[in-house]
Amino acid sequence: MSSPELRWAGPEIGVTTGGAVDTADVSRTARAVAAVLRSQRIDGPARIRLSTTSSRDGSVLAQVNAGRAGAAVRVQVEGPTGFVATIVAERLDRAVSRSRPAGPVRRWPDPARPPLTSITGDRPIVRRKRCVLRSADPTTATRAMDALDYDAHLFVDAESGEDALVYWAGPLGVRLARQHLTRLPDGPALTVNPHPAPRLTESDAASRVCRFGLPYVFFTDADSGRGHLLYRRYDGDLAIVQPVHDPEDRS
Description:
It contains four helices and 15 strands. The protein has helices spanning 23-39, 84-98, 138-147, 202-212; strands at 6-8, 13-18, 46-52, 59-66, 73-80, 125-131, 135-136, 152-157, 163-168, 174-178, 191-192, 199-200, 216-221, 227-232, 238-243. The protein starts with 5 loop residues before the first strand and ends in an 8-residue tail after the last strand.
């Protein structure tokens, strides 16, 4: 269970912990994030979540959401106790810099966060994210993926009207997958998955992720016909992103 929210004296920083997180890591992370916000001249609030992971080396999973609506940045990274504050602060600093005009390009592959590719037995789906997908072109969807520090981002492809996915892969860094259409889209160059999204049930998708050690799978849900994203969590269990039409259906 998460501990009660802790408040750090600084630029509106809230810290929440889950598991046996060292109090020194909490203080160091709050100070490091506050320093980034000051140096980058961000006056919006920041929320930090620190939680222990299933790693035997005692690693801590750190997530930071900073800034205000319309200019928010999110980062998430795992790091060893005693060093996670430095790792997540550096990642936040780079993410804020990239979000600005003429900012640096995200490096791929990402040495700080290798994909979760373990081959395991069947694991349960423990979280469902129901959301109304935004219609966008792949370039805009890629910017959203980068700002949120996701490895994959589900959206509605404005050109085709299909559910689609952008994800970090391939020689150009970003690849596009759509439910049915496999031709190159209009706009800047990027690679395209040459195969339509497979039509699967949730259990089939979960089995595919676990059996083949995939970090995620994009598929057309056999029941709804919508594009779903099922992915591996840091604790080894699974989560799924499900599109909905009505904002009231979100959870």
